[in-house]
Amino acid sequence: MGRLGNKVALVVGAGGSREGLSNGKAVAVLFAREGAHVLALDINREAVEGTCAVIRQEGGRCDALIADATSSEAISGAVETAMGRCGRIDILHNNVGRPIMGDPVAMSEADWQRSIEINLNSAFLACKQVLPIMLSQGAGAIVNVSSLASIQVNAYPYFGYLAAKAGLNQFTRAIAVTLRPPRHPRQCGAARCDRHPARRSGDRRPAREPRRAARPTACCKPDRTHGRCLGRRLCVAFPCLG
Prior knowledge:
By secondary structure, this protein is of the alpha/beta class.
C-alpha cells in the first residue's frame, strides 16, 4: 500500500482531449498506484473509461464518472454518486483547462465566458460540492492545476485563459486561508506550488532554479502570504490526511 492507501481521490478532468497520456490521466494513474480509490471524472466517456482501464489493468481501483465540469447540476450529481459509492472524498484534483484564443477585440463575449467557465468556474463548482464533505471529515486535500500563464504573459493571445488561471491562484489562496478548521489555528491550508523552469528544445544546460521557490509545506500561519511563487499547480492541504 502506497502513500494514499485507503484514500478516495476525485480527479476532475481525468480523461483528456487527445490520445496518449494527459495530465489528468497521469494524475489518476499515479494516485491509484499509491493506493487511492480513484473516481475519474470527465465529459469524454471514451477517454475516462480508457483511464480506468489502465488503472484496473495495474490492479488499482477506479470508477468512471461522466459529467460536464462546468455544469453545477452535473458536478453535484457526480459528487453525490461518488459519496454513495465510497462514503468519503479525501482528495479533490481539479485538472480541467483549455485555452481559447483571442484578444479583447477579436475574442467574442461567448468565448470569453466559456474560457472563464472551463478554467475557473469548473474548480469553483467542484470545491463548492466537495469542501463541505472535507470539512465534515476534518481532513482532505484539494489540488487546483494552474499554469505559468497565470503569472506571465507571452505572445499567445489567450486572454481568457490568462485571466482565469490568475483568478484560480487567488481562489486557491483564499480557500487555504479562510477555510482552515477552527481547532487548528496554526495549521491552516497552505497554497503550494512546484515550479519547473521551461527550457528550449535541445538545450543541454541545466534548468535554472527559481529565485524564490515556495517551500513544499502544508503548515503555516494563517496571517502570512501563501504561495508566493506560483507555478503549475496549487494545493490546499487541510490539517491531516491520516
